[in-house]
Amino acid sequence: MTEMSAALEEALGVLARNHRWTWHHPTRRLLEALPGSAPDRHPVATLATLATVPSEVLEQWTTTHAGEIAGLYAELTTIRDAVGPPQVAYFSPEFGIASQLPQYSGGLGILAGDHLKAASDLALPLVGIGLLYRQGFFRQEIAGGGQVERYETVDPDTSGAVDTGVIVTVPVAGADVAARVWRQEIGATPLLLLDTDVESNSVEARSITDRLYSGDRRHRLHQELILGVGGVRALRALGLAPTVYHLNEGHACFLLLELLAEHVDAGSTLAEARAAVRAATLFTTHTPVPAGIDRFDRDLVRGELAPWARRLGIDLQVLLGWATMREDGDTKPFNTAALALELCGQANGVSQLHATVSRQLFASIPRAAAITGITNGVHARTWVTPDLQQIYDEVLGSGWDNGAPEAWARVGAITDAMFASIRTVARGELLDIVAVTTGAQLDPQGCVIGFARRFATYKRAGLLLRDPAGLARALDNGAQFVFAGKAHPADGEGKALLAEIVAFAESRHAGGRVVLVPDYDITIAQALYAGSDVWLNNPIRPREACGTSGEKAALNGVLNCSILDGWWADWYADGIGWAIPNSSATDPEERDDTEAASLLRIVNDEVLPRFFDQSGAWWDTVRRMLEHLGPLVTAGRMVAEYDHRFYLPMGRR
Ligand SMILES: *Cc1c(COP(=O)(O)O)cnc(C)c1O
User: Fold this and answer.
1) Closest CA to 164 of 139, 143, 138, 192
2) Would you say the pTM of this structure is higher than 0.85?
3) Between 513 and which of 140, 237, 258, 480 could a Cys-Cys bridge form, CB atoms 3.0 to 4.6 Å apart?
4) What is the pLDDT of residues 503-532, one digit of tens each?
5) At 94, which CATH number?
């Protein structure tokens, strides 16, 4: 091999390992052109296979693509070099980066992945901290009328992870558990992942990071100790000293105890340590539902937390007191959100409505009064279909992807014909996926109404089944519904809901116009948001803290029809889509019936007539919607807001 081709292969390896390809289409196109590339295969795995075939194959390929490889590599290097050492450490139990890395279960993880990608775009010095789950989250099949779960093993070496060589230890269940620290690159943003599948560990310890949200409470507690405590130790071992620690949900709360103990070990009093930790920490809460908060029985945590009580020189009771919430009652479970609110200096909810609800939910904790709202956004270049990105680049000009209002103000120049051709292609791609995965042939002239999210009961996937007459009319009038979503393996009610949708889809009433696409993941999600005409969301208000799928659909020029909850409650305006009125009924059955009837009335009387009206009114609505929402719904806007309101002022202290 020549020196030249060795350098090219090296550069190609860097491009494949760095997950910038998940949103940078020129890089993605290059990697997809590799011999042996397949959509569900990580490019590093493709390269690994190529290493086993005669070397001329790869050598010849790299020579042919030399200019492209060198250009993209130089660009990536420039981006990485522009960012200094991390000032912000962003802790999350899941990260949704690519469908080839099943390290996420839903909105929380996707949000975390989008946060890292937007930080890279903004050259913000941030490092992500998470766990490397060997089996991650499950793949879903639909069989026998319900969900079947299948786990795949992730090989870190062929998924872009690089072993940092660092191993940290954390006391868990009375033993020192070792965790290897892997490093992923998300553009300019590093992501550190801890993995307890290390030979020196016991069999039980090795399985701590086996799967996402699996096992019993004890297993979960052990995962959270590795994430929080191991995460801080990993930063130290790598010589990193961020000035801000951002907790994406309470799962990483043990990092707070480790930070306190570091200060006390270094000679601070507890009061000084608490002040220092307060100045450096931000807690983002994600659920307005009390049952959604992570809690542990006191008996479970007592033994585990004794080492930190000792290092802090306090009675364990005091420590447990910090994690207690009056609303939890006499059993006083260890409440991770309470601990985070007690020790963090700043806290926020993920929409303005959610912030208001959170202040009430945590009212007994004094600091909760200061919970503010930063509404979630989505990473535009990840979620907007590439054809439409090209039109945005040409017509709106630079800055649209980070929410620049002056760019979105030019949306009037995108013609009906441009929108129509993009939508026809995207709808066709979605209908192909539907046909391949379900066998159903939907009508390319019909109106596709999409509904996809976790099958959590509060999201009410089956709401429209409550108005059979209204639904029958909608199906007659040209509506077709595409569902997707996974139910948590231990959530019987969620699975029953999914089975109900599958049964209806297969029934005569559905007439082949209702389908459930299996295995909702990032790839299916991208096709669904781009290929739908209308995005439906009907949670029980105010339980959807933000919701982000509707934001992704909106950026694709799809109109939302949603209950006024989360982001839609914050930003809905007349004439940009449809708001399903909330029922004031106190009886849940009556509330659901009323809201189902409202939903189908809107679909039948407003959505479908406008969709099939040939006057262009639909595209006028789309342009109005984009001009209004484009500046608001991007992760660029969100991360910039975190930076101005929290990261910068906290870092200056
Ligand atoms: C965006 C997204 C979600 C979150 O959707 P919500 O509307 O917030 O429930 C879940 N899963 C995937 C794969 C997503 O892309």
Assistant:
1) 192
2) yes
3) 480
4) 999 999 999 999 999 999 999 999 999 999
5) 3.40.50.2000
